[in-house]
Design goal:
The chain is of the alpha/beta class. It contains ten helices and 13 strands. The strands form four sheets. Strands 2-1-6-7 form a four-stranded parallel β-sheet, with helices on both faces. The mean pLDDT is 93.
């Protein structure tokens, strides 16, 4: 059965990668600024977001229903009979539910719907794995088992931010609220738990020590295992490069990818954030 993959822009996959995948379709999430709406990545940049983050009413929103309908029609027109839909965590966004409603109306495609319980590059790694397995002809049940193993066993994601105010403003604070004091300059290391909501992995005095904590946690998670590593950054690519090179000296890194955080996620972190996302490379 000819199968396509559909995901949302919360996966933060590189544009170059997306363009190379013939069976991958990506729906942009929506950013509302005052009375205007923009499609994530396509119609607005992260730097435009950060410039106005404290001056304008900026919120995220669900994909446009018309966009979803158009994608389903395009998938069918290109001859696909099955669709594997992979979404940003239902614990952090209403996107999964918005897709579910549209999926229930679609009768011509065999659709499997997967909640990653995460976002950003960890969601992106799950999408990449799904594409590889679909292209190898692996049956859907086995693909879902492999995605679960990757999500809950073989990948980790941590990030730190200068302030919690944007998470609070967007209602994405999860279980982090109450554990961190913005006073005293205590900074969190945040991860997404198995329920798909933010929790505090550790805390430190200042961003520098928080980044050190993130590195040490990754070393505990992966040891000498070979990994692929993504360093997300908001506005400081040069610092991200420096952090990536530092991690390569402490971890066994096969591929290092520097990835600017997609605008729809940057709204909730602000311009001062870094994330480390790693996946264990399976032995062939």
């Amino acid at each position: 059965m000819k199968t396509a993959i559909l995901t949302d822009s919360g996966c933060n996959l590189p544009k170059e990668y997306i363009e190379k995948q013939k069976n991958l379709f990506v729906i942009p999430l929506i950013i509302n600024i005052d009375d205007e709406s923009f499609r994530d990545q396509l119609e607005i940049t992260s730097q435009e977001i950060y410039k106005d983050l404290d001056e304008k009413n900026i919120k995220t929103s669900l994909p446009k229903t018309g966009d979803l309908h158009d994608i389903f029609e395009k998938v069918k027109k290109e001859g696909y009979e099955a669709l594997l839909v992979i979404n940003i965590s239902s614990g952090l966004s209403g996107t999964f539910n918005a897709f579910r409603i549209e999926i229930e109306q679609e009768k011509d495609l065999a659709i499997t719907h997967y909640d990653t319980k995460t976002l950003g590059a960890q969601q992106g790694y799950i999408v990449r794995e799904a594409i590889d397995l679909v292209n190898k002809g692996v049956e859907t049940k086995k693909i879902i088992e492999a995605l679960d193993e990757l999500r809950y066993k073989d990948s980790k994601a941590y990030y730190t931010i200068a302030t919690l105010k944007y998470l609070r403003r967007g209602g994405r604070i999860g279980k982090v609220e109450g554990t961190i004091g913005d006073l005293l300059h205590i900074k969190p290391v945040i991860t997404v738990n198995d329920e798909g909501v933010y929790v505090t992995a550790s805390k430190a005095l200042g961003i520098k020590r928080s980044l050190l904590n993130m590195k040490n946690i990754l070393i505990e998670d992966f040891g000498s295992d070979l990994i692929d590593l993504t360093v997300h950054y908001a506005s400081d690519k040069e610092k991200a490069q420096e952090l990536g090179e530092t991690l390569k000296r402490s971890l066994s890194v096969r591929n290092l990818e520097l990835s600017e955080l997609t605008p729809v996620l940057g709204i909730h972190t602000g311009p001062e954030m870094f994330a480390y996302v790693a996946r264990r490379v399976k032995k062939s």
